[in-house]
């Protein structure tokens, strides 16, 4: 598959074959660090609480601030990329992330670590907001699905390897090395990115400042409120924050309709294929968020397995995505991507329904084949659906499409996480009910995906 990505044909758009290799390595390295750092710290929170002399609840903010800042800036950075040029924004984000990683490693106080983690998130948001759109100009259109499939593999590996890599580093070294490891890798990625990423002339014009402010409050407020609900800390603060986020959503939509140069051009959503792909992605990521949070609780509290065994039982899901994702992306270059996504969602639904049947007496094999089925389905869904989102709009709008893609992923996962916490916090709540909520979410995603199949079919025959 990799050899195919670098083959050159007459009339290809994108970069020449050798330049693609270096650009791909720079993209994979930066994306991998940004994704890994979202999960690698979680396993170290008890250690950080001890060594920084803070409470467990305070230590959670070392993880939360990263997700919160990243979510808040995705749409703004996607729009800013048109003013700066995508290569400048990506390289700048990578530089900020690398320097901030060094700051995290040198931190000796909770407050300083929070500040440097927030700076890490600024760099991560710059990279993640435009990653898929950079693939659009690095690779020929005929290989876009394969390239995005490789991107899905990178993200899946980051999700799977984060806790394990964090545990391994803590086993052989102290916690600052969780961050220090990014420095040499980041320097290498910077050198590759400066040399190989395709250059773009910046577009003239001002960024929509009010739209950016509305989007930051909207995204950060919703993620914060959902996180509070998910930890059983809803109360007045979470409700007020959610209300402010919803009001900002209204202000954001109004602003986008009436400003000459909107932060997110509404022309994106005038394309039905893009709108349906975005909505489908939101519900699919909601279901994945439910499963990713609910299953470890199910394994440990219902089945009584150890945390290490819980991680092992969960591994088939992201591991299978790593295998299926690139294949699905390649298939999407040749066949109807909406149809492939729908088949994937159907398998994902079967896997989620099977997970609801797990109980205290379930064997490890019962768990493994169910989680593997979910991974097969999600792997078939994700890369073709992402290809639809990025490939259904013009190159000029692809950076904005990339920002929307990253935003719906973050929002969907946050909503799924919060849903599990809310259900578990209710007296009638149960882990099985959480999984059933995930099933309903997949059903909605599947219905949306099936509806757009003929739209994608007509687009392929134009």
Automatic annotation (TrEMBL):
Major facilitator superfamily (MFS) profile domain location: 23-457
Keyword Cell division: no
Keyword tags: Membrane, Transmembrane, Transmembrane helix, Transport
Alphabetical list of InterPro entries matching this protein: MFS (IPR011701), MFS_dom (IPR020846), MFS_trans_sf (IPR036259)
Bilayer disposition of the protein: Multi-pass membrane protein
Major place of residence: membrane
Keyword set includes Transmembrane helix: yes
Name of the protein described by the UniProt record: MFS transporter
């Amino acid at each position: 598959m990799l050899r195919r990505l670098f083959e050159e044909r007459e009339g290809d758009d994108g970069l020449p074959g050798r330049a693609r290799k270096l650009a791909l390595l720079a993209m994979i390295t930066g994306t991998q660090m940004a994704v890994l750092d979202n999960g690698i710290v979680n396993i170290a929170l008890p250690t950080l609480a001890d060594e920084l002399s803070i409470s467990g609840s305070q230590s959670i903010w070392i993880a939360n601030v990263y997700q919160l800042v990243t979510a808040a800036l995705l749409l703004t950075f996607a729009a800013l990329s048109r003013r700066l040029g995508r290569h400048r924004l990506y390289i700048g984000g990578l530089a900020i992330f690398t320097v901030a990683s060094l700051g995290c490693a040198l931190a000796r106080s909770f407050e300083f670590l929070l500040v440097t983690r927030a700076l890490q998130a600024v760099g991560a948001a710059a990279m993640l907001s435009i990653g898929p759109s950079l693939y659009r100009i690095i690779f020929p259109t005929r290989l876009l699905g394969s390239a995005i499939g490789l991107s899905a593999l990178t993200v899946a590996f980051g999700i799977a390897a984060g806790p394990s890599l964090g545990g391994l580093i803590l086993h052989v070294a102290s916690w600052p090395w969780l961050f220090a490891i990014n420095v040499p890798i980041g320097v290498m990625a910077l050198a590759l990115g400066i040399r190989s990423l395709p250059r773009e002339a910046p577009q003239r014009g001002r960024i929509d400042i009010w739209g950016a402010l509305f989007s930051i409050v909207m995204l950060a407020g919703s993620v914060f409120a959902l996180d509070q609900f998910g930890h059983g800390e809803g109360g007045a603060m979470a409700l007020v924050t959610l209300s402010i986020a919803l009001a900002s959503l209204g202000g954001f939509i109004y602003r986008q309709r009436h400003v000459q140069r909107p932060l997110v051009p509404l022309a994106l959503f005038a394309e039905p294929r893009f709108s349906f792909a975005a909505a489908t992605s939101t519900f699919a990521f909601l279901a994945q968020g439910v499963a990713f949070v609910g299953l470890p609780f199910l394994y440990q509290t219902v089945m009584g397995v150890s945390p290490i065994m819980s991680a092992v039982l969960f591994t088939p899901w992201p591991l299978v995505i790593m295998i299926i994702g690139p294949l699905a992306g390649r298939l999407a270059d040749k066949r109807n991507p909406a149809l492939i996504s729908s088949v994937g969602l159907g398998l994902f639904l079967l896997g989620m329904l099977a997970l609801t049947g797990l109980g205290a007496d379930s064997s490890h094999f019962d768990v493994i084949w169910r989680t593997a089925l979910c991974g097969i389905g999600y792997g078939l869904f994700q890369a073709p659906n992402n290809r639809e989102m990025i490939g259904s709009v013009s190159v000029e709008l692809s950076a904005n499409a990339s920002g929307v893609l990253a935003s719906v992923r973050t929002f969907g996962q946050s909503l799924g996480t919060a849903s599990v916490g809310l259900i578990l916090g209710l007296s009638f709540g149960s882990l099985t009910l959480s999984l059933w909520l995930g099933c309903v979410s997949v059903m909605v995603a599947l219905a949306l995906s099936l509806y757009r199949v003929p739209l994608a079919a007509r687009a392929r025959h134009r």
